[in-house]
Design a protein that fits this description.
The chain is mainly beta. It contains one helix and 14 strands, in the order αββββββββββββββ. The protein has two domains: 33 residues, no CATH class; 130 residues, Jelly Rolls (Sandwich). Helices cover 8% and strands 40% of the residues.
Length: 222
Amino acid sequence: MKSFLVLAIACSLVVFQANSKAQVATITIHADQVLHTNSLYLTGACIEDVNHEIYGGIYSQMIFGESFQEPASPTTSLVDFTAYGGGWLPTNGVLQASAGSGPKLIYNGFNQTNGDVSVQLWFSSNAGGNAGLILQVSQAGVGADVFNGYEISLAPAGYLVLGRHVQNFTSLSQVSCSVPIGQWITLEVQYTNASFNILVNNWWTVRETSISRPSLATRTDS
């Protein structure tokens, strides 16, 4: 009696599956009828099927990444500064800059006539290239020589460069000096409209250098 009952149930299941028919689902959209509005605080939604499992939630793209899972942009906007090329990222009180074809970060409130300005530089290797300060800048753009002004920079190869840019580059002086690798180096420039006094780690490198300065408003190849 027990075996017969089990067999009868099995037969019923087979008959039911054989007689069932697939039903077609129909979705009708009335674009002219607004039933509900979205919250202003719903900035994104995610439902994803991964390995036959589903998960989801609210994901915000208002700052960066999904749920803050991705790193920040390689360039961070700094108040009162304008970046022309390159990547500039403040990390633990240090501004990290990626190497490139003349990336520039220009302070918008700088005194163009005279002053005393300094920067601390760190070179991790003695690879080619240089870094430092540019002064009295105008008509700046992206590119190594795309600006009018003066460059005071250090090269890991062991020298200081003083040059003039008028949408090009003219070397005014190149002085051998110690540029240690893996150490902080202080580069200071005291400047007026007639001279530069340049110190590297508080040692005079170029002092009372009178410079004949043509107008920076037009290009010159001299």
